[in-house]
Write a structure and sequence with these properties.
Elements lengths: L2 H21 L7 H14 L3 E2 L4 E4 L2 E3 L16 E10 L2 E10 L5 H17 L6 H14 L3 E2 L5 E4 L9 E2 L16 E4 L2 E3 L7 E3 L5 E4 L8 H14 L4 E2 L9 H13 L3 E4 L2 E3 L5 E3 L2 E5 L4 E3 L3
Antiparallel strand pairs: 1-4, 2-4, 3-15, 4-5, 6-10, 7-8, 7-9, 9-17, 10-16, 11-15, 12-13, 12-14, 17-18
The chain binds manganese (II) ion (MN) (2 copies).
C-alpha cells in the first residue's frame, strides 16, 4: 500500500471510531471502560491506536487517559473530550470530538466545530498558518468565547504525532509558515468560556508515556523492558493499560518511574484550564492539495 492509501485508511477508521464514540451514551460508564471499548473498535476495524484514547473531562483540556481499572465515572453534567488516534503502518490520523449530556454545553461544542470547519475551508497548499490561527480565533471570539492560546494543531509524520510544526489557534505576530501540498496536519481548536483564562497548565497526573531514548541502563530487567516498549510502541505514546497484560502493574509502574528519572521515558502531564473552566475540542487531520484540502478524518 502506498503512503496516501495508508493515510486514507487510518483516517476512515479514525472517523468511524470517533462517530462510534460520539453517538454512545457514556454517562455512568467508567473512563477505563470507555477507553478500552474505543481502542477495541480501532483494532476490530484493522487499525492500531496511535496513542491511548484521550478522555479528558471538563477543565482538563487534553492528555488524560484511563489508568488500569480507572474508576472515574462520566456524569450527566460532564463535558467529555474524546481524542482518537489511529495508525496504519505508522501513518497516523488524529481526530477528536466533545460530548456532553447537558444541553447547556452544546453551544460551546458547536463553536469548536465551527472554528475547525472555518479553518479547514481556507486550508490548502500555501495557506499561511497565521491565517488559520486568525480564523479560528475570530470564529471563537465572535461567539463570545475564548480559544486556548497555548494549545495548537501540528504536523504529523510517520510514527510521529507532533512532527515539529504548530498550527496556532490564535492570531500570532511574527513567525509563520505555509502549508505544503501532501504534508499532513492536525487542526484542533480548543475553546473555553469567556471567564476562562484561555491558557492551560500542566497538572500532576501523567498517564500517557512515550519512549524518549533507547540508551541502555546497565540493568538487565530495565533494558528488557525498554526493548519491549520499543518493539511494541516505537516512538508512539502508550498507557499503563497497554502494558499490564505482559507486566504486573506494580512492576511496570516502578520500571516506568525509573526510566522517567533516567530520561529514557517521557510522561505527558494532563493540561488543565487556568481558571478551571470547561474546555471543548474538535479536531481533524488534513492533507492540503493545490486548490482544496483532503480531510482524511471526515
Ligand atoms: Mn488528537
Ligand atoms: Mn492532535
Amino acid at each position: 500500500m502506498d503512503i496516501f492509501e495508508n493515510y486514507v485508511k487510518a483516517g476512515k477508521i479514525a472517523s468511524e471510531v470517533r462517530e462510534y464514540a460520539r453517538t454512545q451514551d457514556h454517562a455512568g460508564r467508567t473512563l477505563s471502560d470507555i477507553c478500552n471499548d474505543i481502542e477495541q473498535e480501532i483494532f476490530k476495524k484493522g487499525g492500531e491506536p496511535a496513542f491511548p484514547v484521550n478522555v479528558s473531562l471538563n477543565d482538563i483540556a487534553a492528555h488524560y487517559t484511563a489508568v488500569p481499572n480507572d474508576p472515574i465515572t462520566v456524569k450527566n453534567s460532564d463535558v467529555l473530550k474524546i481524542d482518537v488516534g489511529v495508525h496504519i503502518d505508522g501513518y497516523i490520523a488524529d481526530t477528536a470530538v466533545t460530548v456532553s449530556y447537558d444541553a447547556k454545553y452544546q453551544n460551546l461544542i458547536d463553536i469548536a466545530q465551527k472554528a475547525l470547519d472555518e479553518a479547514i475551508s481556507i486550508a490548502r497548499s500555501n495557506t499561511r498558518v497565521s491565517d488559520i490561527g486568525r480564523i479560528i480565533e475570530k470564529t471563537i471570539t465572535k461567539y463570545g468565547c475564548k480559544p486556548i492560546q497555548n494549545l495548537s494543531g501540528h504536523s504529523l509524520e510517520r510514527y510521529t504525532i507532533h512532527a515539529g510544526k504548530s498550527i496556532p489557534n490564535i492570531w500570532t505576530i511574527g513567525h509563520s509558515f505555509n502549508l505544503s501540498v501532501n504534508n499532513v496536519y492536525a487542526i484542533e481548536p480548543f475553546v473555553t468560556t469567556k471567564d476562562g483564562q484561555g491558557i492551560v497548565y500542566e497538572g500532576r497526573v501523567r498517564n500517557i508515556y512515550g519512549l524518549a531514548s533507547r540508551k541502555r541502563t546497565k540493568d538487565q530487567k530495565l533494558d528488557e523492558f525498554l526493548e519491549y516498549l520499543w518493539n511494541k510502541f516505537k516512538t508512539l505514546p502508550f498507557a499503563l493499560r497497554w502494558i499490564v497484560k505482559e507486566y504486573e502493574e506494580k512492576e511496570a509502574l516502578l520500571f516506568l518511574e525509573t526510566l522517567i528519572k533516567k530520561k529514557n521515558v517521557h510522561a505527558y502531564p494532563i493540561l488543565v484550564e487556568g481558571a478551571n473552566r470547561i474546555v471543548v475540542q474538535a479536531e481533524h487531520t488534513i492533507i492540503p492539495q493545490e486548490s482544496n484540502t483532503i480531510t482524511i478524518t471526515k
